[in-house]
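Final report, Chapter 2: Outcomes

The project's central promise was a pipeline that accepts a single protein chain and returns its three-dimensional structure in a standardized token representation, suitable for archiving and comparison. That pipeline is now operational. To close this chapter, we reproduce one record exactly as it appears in the project archive, with the input sequence first and the structure output second.
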Amino acid sequence: MLHYFLYPLADEYGFFRLFQYITFRTGAAVVTALLICFVLGPSVIRWLKSKQGEGQPIRDDGPMGHILTKKGTPTMGGVLILLAVSISTILWADITNAYVWAVLIVTVGFGLIGFVDDYKKLTERSTDGMSSRMKFGLQTVVGVIAVLWIQSITEPEIANGLVLPFSKALVLDLGWFFIPFAILVMVGASNAVNLTDGLDGLAIVPSMIAAGVFSLIAYIVGNAVFTQYLQLHFVPGAGELAIFCGAMVGAALGFLWFNAPPAMVFMGDTGSLAIGGALGAVSIVTKHEIVLAIVGGLFVLETVSVIVQVLSFKLTGKRVFRMAPLHHHFEQKGWPESTVVIRFWIIASILALAGLATLKLR
């Protein structure tokens, strides 16, 4: 929004020419979101503590140490992330860009669903929250709205296309099937981040890494020169999502300040569902849905571990892992929480580099 008002002043004041550059506005979005978290964080945490009393309910069947160390910690910290991302994006992105609003709708919509889920857990003092059917149903409704909107503003040649990494020109036209596929990407990414959010700082850093990667991807895909050089598919207007992703990076850094072990606040479903949905939406706009599965491979591993555990127990009565999701398996093996978290950050970084490699290896 700021560049809309300030860039016209460039003829009189040369400094304002900077506002035309996505790179400058992306950096500004990072700093703005970070400062919003730093300024509002303490007040938001105090407010959450005053309203929640005993804090987030802790799983009785989880690691015993969690009952002692995490009891009383407030949840719904994702509210801080949503505020920082939304305000920063609106300030620095082009507010006439429909892609920006479509992704914001997914982010805020999924965040509100997570907020209701967190609220039910708190009021009912249970880890169950909203029923899976209701949660997935609401996410699907938001997803349908976003996908139809994104399709309507994307070039017809690639609107229903699935672009394969490591391929120069191959695009699979999914036709009408693209709608359920895109919804699956958003809902799947949303719940994958949610499953990963089980230890202090575990989900927020891989989310920040993924957002940073997709900020670069969005910038490249929205630039005709870079897409021609790298033989990618040009998506006009997608470059503005680099600013949105930059805001996510800044918000994640700011939230990590309060979520670092021992956490002062948990993001809850309010944050995890919103972050995952946002990453899924950005991957759909930029036509890098498969690359998201690589960059966010840690989230995929966590989700697969839950699926494998459930199927194995139902079919054979035996568990593959000591506990699912995967991070709890390593805790049960005796790894300290900090060791699990940092090693998972390393894995996320390696997978992010692998995802970036797909931009050139074609």
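Archive annotation: The chain has one domain: 2-357.
This record, like all others produced under the grant, will remain available to the consortium after the project formally closes.
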